[in-house]
Amino acid sequence: MIPILRTVAELRALSGGWKARNEVVGVVPTMGALHDGHLSLARRARAECDRVITTIFVNPKQFNNPEDLKKYPRSEDADAALLATVPVDAIFAPPVEEVYPDGFITTVSMGGVAQPLEGHMRPGHFDGVATVVTKLFGMSLADRGYFGHKDWQQLQVVLRLVRDLNIPVQVVGCETIREPDGLAMSSRNVRLTAEGRAKAPILYAAITRAAEDIRAGHADRMAIREAAETMRKAGFERVEYIELRDAETLMPSDDPRRPRRMLAAAWIDGVRLIDNIPV
Ligand code: AMP
User: Fold this and answer.
1) Ligand 1, from 38, 52, 153, 154: best to mutate by most atoms within 8 Å of Cβ?
2) Is 38 one of the catalytic residues?
3) The domain that contains 166 carries what CATH number?
4) Residue 180 in domain
5) How many domains does the chain fold into?
6) What's the rounded Cα separation, in Å, for the pair 34 and 274?
7) Structure confidence by residue, pLDDT tens digits, 17-66
8) Per the residue annotation, which of 38, 125, 149, 218 is the catalytic one?
9) Of 26, 54, 144, 210, which is the most exposed, with the fewest CB atoms less than 10 Å away?
10) pTM, whole model, 2 decimals?
């Protein structure tokens, strides 16, 4: 059985012991409801570190929508069973009061890369992410932190965070894991009805087509408009954004010499999906 730790003191004692022996500690922050995407991060950490901690914490501070927080899937027993297949060395699954005890008043607030797209659509989201990631790094004493490309903007936010605050953690980005039909794995996919699930892969198909067209010389705006149209016709209730951005700063970019990323968010079946790909 993998130990499940509930307190920062326990986590520190365990990780501190490893560090005293000069072992390299990797942390994989998650909100649980684990799938193969999460496990790919844990496996990568397993391959690259002496010790691996997976954290499971549904961070209330990064939810701008209380309904989304309430409905967020939770499945700790199944998560622990999946993590045993990697295996990781420890699971840190603290209660909310352990992370945000009475009197907690500090927020890590970020401009720049945290402002557009998800930052714009979900006010306060990235401040919540930056605050909890800073805390998880501090609590776990990790040398490396593993994050998925699935949440590309979040990865860029965390890379900027560790630079700006001199946090001695090496941030490692990992490829997006997809279902066979292209849909990016996500804990929220379980909330889709069969009908919504059948249509959901059109998000990835549409942005993939747009990226191909842009690489072939089509106008950016036109390719993006067609992708949005394809999605609306397929039954997406709302396309929040499809944007071609500088891959690092997330600012608008029409400079094809810099790495660019196409990022999208859309609603199908009452579920908000995000995805992104290189262009
Ligand atoms: P979450 O539990 O949604 O907060 O995700 C925890 C970590 O897993 C984040 O770094 C995500 O980017 C990463 N992740 C989520 N879904 C995937 C996926 N399909 N492929 C790769 N990484 C993922």
Assistant:
1) 38
2) yes
3) 3.40.50.620
4) no
5) 2
6) 17
7) 999 999 999 999 999 999 999 999 999 999 999 999 999 999 999 999 99
8) 38
9) 144
10) 0.98
